[in-house]
Amino acid sequence: KAGVTQTPRYLIKTRGQQVTLSCSPISGHRSVSWYQQTPGQGLQFLFEYFSETQRNKGNFPGRFSGRQFSNSRSEMNVSTLELGDSALYLCASSLETDRPGNTIYFGEGSWLTVV
Amino acid sequence: GDSVTQMEGPVTLSEEAFLTINCTYTATGYPSLFWYVQYPGEGLQLLLKATKADDKGSNKGFEATYRKETTSFHLEKGSVQVSDSAVYFCAQNNAGNMLTFGGGTRLMVKP
Which pLDDT band holds residue B98 (cuts at 50, 70, 90)? Predict the structure, then answer.
């Protein structure tokens, strides 16, 4: 069974630009969530999508957005990039249930560098 | 709010030494608890989990017991290997598919 797949793996953008990251969840998983990992702030929850609807949202500005498609694939977008947006962006997927004991599986991440 | 605190690293051990990485949590309700491991340049891999008090999660020689009375979920391994060198994250999930992570602990194992 293929794992969570994220593209692109590495990218460099300029301040002020926007970026779109893509995520394909494990087959059969309908919940997709996104996390940002930085040396200073650690791992922080961005948002979660289920059945094309945002179900939960972390404490990030509106420049960070996402969406989920009918095949459960997800994209996240960051507009008006700032230097502080440089981070590893991790996508995770899990089964549709939102029980706390649900196992959440992560992809390899997309490394974003803003210059 | 919910939070996870784990010991700061790096933790440096010799091969075959005993490992303990402390993790405590604060939460309303009864969260599930997880340990994830991150190898250099990679994403997070689930190491083990426990979903209720007194549960013991185990995998690849690592163990952690959900202690509700001390709100802890310490990671242990009896004999570490060089290949265990990585960053370890303790996390809780109290509602929905949202994980709250600790700051991570870097483990370095020397031959």
Answer: confident
In 10 A of CB B62, how many CB atoms? 20
Cα of B88 to nearest chain A Cα, Å: 12
Contact B104 A31 (CB under 8 A): no
Inter-residue contact B109 to B85 (CB < 8 Å): yes
Q: In angstroms, rounded to a whole number, what is the distance separating the alpha carbons of residues A56 and A20?
A: 20
Q: What is the tens place of the pLDDT at every residue in B29-46?
A: 889 999 999 998 889 999
Q: Would you tell me which residues 50-69 of chain A have a C-beta closer than 8 angstroms to some C-beta of chain B?
A: 50, 55-56, 58
Q: Does A72 contact chain B (CB < 8 Å)?
A: no
Q: In this structure, is the dihedral angle defined by the CA atoms of residues A102, B60, B107 and B65, taken in order, positive or negative?
A: positive
User: In this structure, are residues B64 and B49 in contact, taking their beta carbons and an 8 Å threshold?
Assistant: no
CB contact under 8 A, A102 and B93: yes
Q: Which of B28, B5, B16 is nearest to B74 (CA)?
A: B5
